[in-house]
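B., you asked whether I could sanity-check this one before it goes into the benchmark set. Here's the sequence:
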Amino acid sequence: MAHVIFSFDTRKVDFKFMFISRAPLRISLGGGGTDLPSYYSKYGGFFISAAIDKYTYVSVSSPFVKKIILKYSNYEEVDNPLDIKNPLIRETLFEYSPNPNDPIEIISFADIPSGTGLGSSGSFCVALLKSLSGFYKLHSSSHEIAEKACKIEIERLNEPVGKQDQFISAFGGINSFEISRSGEVSITPLHISQETLSDLENNLMLFYTGIQRKASSVLVDQDKKTIESDAKTIENLHRTKELGKTSFDLLKNSKLNQFALLMHEHWINKRKRSLSMSNDYVNKIYDAAIANGALGGKIVGAGGGGFLMFYAENKTQLRDEMKKFDLVEMKFQFNFSGVQPILI
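And here's what the prediction gave me:
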């Protein structure tokens, strides 16, 4: 993730002041793809998402030099924010900072690398906005932060992404999100017993394929076809939305095995949407998992790589099979707090 350091006017800000936030990453449980404006602006969107205890961290503070310095995979040092090469940081500052020209120091790091399907760019933008909100004492709500993060990625940067990552990162928990044609998002938390919640958490398993990719590169084909009203794409997304709504009902009624079987149908449907959703290697792993303990599964996120998620009651058998592919399992728990300050 991006590590940024900007500089602040020493007459305005105490050098010792620092604000640090963390925003959770997420797993998608159904309806993904219907959260893109190209679809929901015509038909309305619906998806289920769950925040997990893997995070992006962002600190904002005042430095000792009047420079804008960025540290991430590259290093930038500029005087003018217009010269910032990292687009997400640049546009976030122009959208949210009272004065983007002020010196400021921003440092970011994450538990999981970007491009792995867990919503890292949305998580980063949400954490950055939360830290800027605290630093400037703007007191923005989670909903306001989620909407601003969506505006930055979708409108200012014109990325072919949806609203899932920003909203689940801001709110946390396990929720369904319904998007109206005008883009308004309504949130319904999943209310289930502690026993069902524990079973869901224990039986969902994540395995890293080792493949990193940019979500927008996978979604651009879907976005283009949806804008052009391609009949097969629209029909596929309609079916995806139906599967998402049914999945939420099954989870709500503690029918986890049926949810897992529907997750398999969801993945088969998703693979039909674009050739970039999967590949022979991922399909081979998936088929082996289904034959060895997994009731259902899918690629988390846009597709093309990242993490494979399976629901399995026979976890030992599945783990043994995944070891044959040298896949790394990432254990997790759900996060119910959303974006939070961790140091002020």
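One thing to flag: The CA atoms of residues 131 and 137 lie 10 Å apart. Otherwise nothing jumped out at me.
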